[in-house]
Design the sequence.
């Protein structure tokens, strides 16, 4: 009974104590620094359009097709070169994290996206997964219509169902990973 109570208190504390100072509360403490570094590398690759570096940061889900063929670095780079500005997460300030499954976490924060000559901010989410002993990313998404980053300070804020693309492959690669007909 004591262990059940302790677990309940931990879950409540984790859910309500997250903020920009402790955005990775559910992530094991020993893995938080590595996750932070990989998340910075992920957004840097998008910002610099360094698709070769991004290839090393995305999960196997974005590299292995439905018929078990591997999407090569060359094909990945080719497909990413057609990325629209609004598909590039160029900065990300994590605020809170939710467990999405075994070794998978949805990280919610304030994202910055290029929009022509401007940069726009809105709530964004990134799916981080543990693969091959490190942190990789499946996808990222933002609400449509956009939500201001200030909404994340509300402990009652919940992601809407329209942010569920986190468990899907990156849109730019969907025809290489699945059968597409035009």
Sequence:
């Amino acid at each position: 009974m004591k262990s059940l109570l302790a677990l309940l208190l931990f879950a409540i504390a984790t859910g309500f104590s997250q903020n920009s100072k402790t955005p990775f509360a559910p992530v094991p403490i020993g893995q938080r620094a590595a996750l932070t570094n990989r998340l910075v590398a992920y957004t840097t690759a998008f910002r610099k359009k360094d698709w070769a570096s991004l290839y090393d940061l995305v999960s196997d889900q974005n590299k292995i097709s439905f018929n078990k063929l591997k999407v090569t670095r060359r094909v990945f780079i080719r497909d990413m070169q057609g990325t629209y500005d609004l598909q590039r997460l160029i900065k990300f300030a994590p605020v809170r994290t939710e467990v999405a499954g075994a070794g998978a976490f949805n990280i919610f924060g304030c994202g910055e996206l290029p929009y022509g000559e401007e940069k726009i901010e809105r709530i964004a989410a990134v799916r981080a997964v543990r693969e091959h002993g490190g942190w990789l990313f499946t996808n990222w998404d933002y609400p449509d219509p956009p939500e201001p980053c200030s909404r994340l300070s509300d402990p009652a804020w919940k992601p809407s169902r329209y942010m569920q693309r986190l468990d899907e492959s990156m849109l730019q690669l969907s025809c290489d990973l699945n059968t597409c007909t035009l």
Notes: The two ends are 58 Å apart (CA to CA). Residues 2-177 form a domain with the Nuclear Transport Factor 2; Chain: A, fold (CATH 3.10.450.50).
